[in-house]
Design a protein that fits this description.
By secondary structure, this protein is α/β, with parallel strands linked by helices. 23% of the residues lie in helices and 29% in strands. The longest helix has 22 residues.
Length: 304
């Protein structure tokens, strides 16, 4: 079978793309390697999705999956290893076979960079967060740490400082790499304590995170911070490696695309956090999915 649209990735961008493509009466296959919903499934409570006062990331993902299945989109659980052209068609190569399509929408997202500490993944979504906009309100009046020293970390810290009682900023270097203006604003906050030249060595707690052990890289001394949560802001890793031969990537590995989400290769579109852009939120991912799907449908129609 040759599909009209194959979507690689089952997060908010990919699932929205599937919904729009099916409503345009196109045959659709969504390929996901892990779990439908993407990074949002790590959030126990989400309050910034229009139309919902609050719901869990898993509940949101289930609603989106139910919606595309009701539209009779097809799904496959496997990992895409390559995309290649075959005439005017695209061949999506996976670890369990090949699928052919007239267009492909890459919606593989970007995973948050972790510190790679033993037991770290145990606390993701249960004490470790990545988004102050998404999860900051849950720590109102509490004590948290932000790990990182770039612009993203500084912006997260500034936002959180208006919500929490006490905030530590833990940066492994002896200086911040973010903009000077952000550093200036940060240092004026009375509830922020900056800890430069410091790394997190261990997460502490039982079922929930209770604190972190930290180490000063300059003198080797170790200490313990009692915190209710940790916000990691040490970078994102776009999941575009298998497509580097087919689409243009920037120097950080994000897919370069225009406002129609078209990549450098005709018939291949990109949507969501794997795309080069400024804002990465569930709403912007969904918007990308709709735009990419409509552009892909237009491309398919033009081939007839």
């Amino acid at each position: 079978m040759i599909y009209d649209v194959i979507i690689v990735g089952g997060g908010p961008a990919g699932l929205t793309a599937a919904l729009y493509a099916r409503r345009a009466n196109k045959t659709v296959l969504v390929i996901e390697k892990n779990v439908f919903g993407g990074q949002i499934t790590f959030s126990p409570k989400v309050e910034n999705i229009p139309g919902f006062t609050e719901l869990s990331g898993n509940e949101f993902a289930e609603k989106m999956v139910d919606q595309i299945l009701a539209q009779e989109a097809e799904t496959e659980f496997c990992e895409v290893t390559e995309i290649r052209s075959e005439g005017d068609k695209k061949v999506v190569v996976t670890d369990s076979g090949e699928f052919r399509s007239k267009t492909v929408i890459i919606a593989t997202g970007a995973k948050h960079r972790l510190l790679v500490i033993d037991g770290e993944e145990k606390y993701v979504g249960n004490g470790i967060s990545f988004c102050a906009v998404c999860d900051g309100a849950f720590y109102s009046g509490k004590t948290v740490a932000v790990v990182g020293g770039g612009n993203s970390a500084l912006q997260e810290a500034l936002l959180l400082s208006d919500l929490v009682e006490k905030l530590y900023v833990v940066q492994n270097l002896n200086f911040f790499t973010g903009e000077g203006k952000l550093v200036e604003l940060l240092l004026k906050k009375p509830n922020i304590e900056v800890m430069l030249g410091t790394v997190v060595e261990e997460y502490c707690g039982d079922d929930e995170l209770k604190g972190v052990k930290i180490k000063n890289v300059n003198d080797g001394s170790s200490s313990y911070l009692e915190v209710d949560g940790v916000f990691l802001a040490v970078g994102l890793i776009p999941q575009n490696e298998p497509f580097a031969n087919m689409i243009e990537l920037d120097d950080r590995g994000y897919a370069v695309a225009d406002e129609t989400c078209l990549t450098s290769t005709a018939g291949i579109f990109v949507a969501g956090d794997c795309r080069k852009k400024k804002i990465r939120q569930v709403t912007t991912a969904a918007a990308d999915g709709a735009i990419a799907a409509l552009a892909a449908c237009e491309y398919v129609d033009a081939q007839h």
